[in-house]
Amino acid sequence: MERQVVVIAGPSGSGKNAVIDALLERSEKCSLLVNVTTRPPREGEKEGVDYYFFSVDDFKRGIETGSILEYRYVPSLGTYYGTYKPDLEGRIAKGEVVLAHKDIVGARYLKEHYNAVTIFLLPESIESLERRIRARNPGMSSAELAERMRMVTREVEEEAPHYDYRVVNADGKLEETINNVMAILKKEGYTLE
C-alpha cells in the first residue's frame, strides 16, 4: 500500500509551518489536511481552506456520526479541533500525499489508522525556541511566555520520543531541515513527484 499521510508536528516556533509550506511548494503531490474547529474564523480565513468551521453542536454530531475521526478540546480557548474524515479521505482518493499538522493524539490516530509516518521538529535548544517565540510575539507578557515555554518543554520531553522521527530545525538551517524531511519521506516510500 502506498503511503499517503504524514504528520509534521512540533512546538510553537519550531518551523513546522515553514516546512509544510516548502513541501507543498516543492511537490504537486502534497496537499494540506484541513482540520475542523469550533472557533470562529479569523479575518482572512476561508472555510475549507484554513479550517472547516463548525458550531459545537455540529462538531459533537460529527464525532457521533464518525465524520470527525479524532479531536481534542482546548479548555483555555473553549475550542474543539479535529480531523475531518471527508477532507482526509477525499485527498487520499485523489492520490495526494496528505500533510497533517497534529498533536500527539492526532499523530497516534493517523499512524494507527492511516499508516502515517510521524515527524517531530525540534529546536536546536529551548533557548533558541524562546528567542523565536519572543520575536514572533514581541508584546507577549512574561506570564504568557512562561506558560508557552512550559508547554514547549513538555512537548519536547514527553511527546517527541513517541514520533517516528525527530528532526532538529536549527536557526538559519531551514533548507537543510526541509531536505532532511524530504529524504525521510522518500525513504519511507512516499511518492513526491
TrEMBL record:
The keyword Transferase applies. It comes from the Bacteria. Residues 3-186 form the Guanylate kinase-like domain. Keywords: Kinase, Transferase. One of its GO terms (molecular function) is GMP kinase activity. SMART domains: GuKc (SM00072). PROSITE patterns: GUANYLATE_KINASE_2 (PS50052). The keyword Membrane does not apply. GO terms for cellular component: cytosol. SUPFAM superfamilies: P-loop containing nucleoside triphosphate hydrolases. Coiled coil: none annotated. Belongs to the guanylate kinase family. This is Guanylate kinase-like domain-containing protein. It comes from Candidatus Kaiserbacteria bacterium RIFCSPLOWO2_01_FULL_54_24. The lineage of its organism: Bacteria, Candidatus Kaiseribacteriota.
